[in-house]
Amino acid sequence: MKQPLVAILMGSDTDYQTLQPAEEMLRSLGISFETSVLSAHRTPDEVIEFARSAQSRGLRVIIAAAGGAAALPGVVAALTLLPVLGVPIASGTLLGLDSLLSMVQMPTGVPVATFAIGTAGASNAALFAARILALEDAALRARLETQRKERASRVLQANERLRKL
């Protein structure tokens, strides 16, 4: 098995359904990843160990998802220099808006690149991770370009079908 380059981290196993599109995207691009459940509030020691050891374990990007207070991405970003990509989970009374605002309002010096609430954010976080990795991987860059062309082709085919109606 290849060394994971991307970590997908969530604060609760109930977040897994939201993060599955990230796994699917990474898998489709041939990017090795690992998925873990660690909570900034319930398992802080483990989160600290995870974040501090991430780079030495070969990880290059961390996708961190959280709902509610959304502390996980910020805590991880405070403990590593690796890029942290935040995915807000739609939960609670505010349906993820609280999580989104928590992630995008990080203080200066602790950046978390934050994506849309829910599965679209998970997919885009995985694509962004791929783009980061593609800066030093020409084969991955080619796979991303192929994927982009395939998406464009599907849109143009749909347009042609619609025009024929």
Net shape:
globular
Number of helices: 6
What is the string of SSEs from the N terminus onward?
EHEHEHEHEHH
- Mean of residue pLDDT values: 96
Report the top-level CATH class: Alpha Beta
CATH topology category name: Rossmann fold
General description of the model:
The protein is α/β, with parallel strands linked by helices and 165 residues long. It is 50% helix and 14% strand. It has helices at 16-28, 44-53, 71-79, 97-104, 119-134, 138-164; strands at 6-10, 33-37, 61-66, 84-88, 113-114. Strands 2-1-3-4-5 form a five-stranded parallel sheet, with helices on both faces. Strand 1 (6-10), helix 1 (16-28) and strand 2 form a beta-alpha-beta unit. The termini are far apart.
Show the helix and strand layout.
Blueprint: E1 6-10, H1 16-28, E2 33-37, H2 44-53, E3 61-66, H3 71-79, E4 84-88, H4 97-104, E5 113-114, H5 119-134, H6 138-164
Parallel strand pairs: 1-2, 1-3, 3-4, 4-5
Helix pairs in contact: 1-5, 2-3, 5-6
A few lines on this structure:
50% of the residues lie in helices and 14% in strands. The protein has 165 residues and is α/β, with parallel strands linked by helices. The protein has one domain: Rossmann fold (3-Layer(aba) Sandwich), CATH 3.40.50.1970.
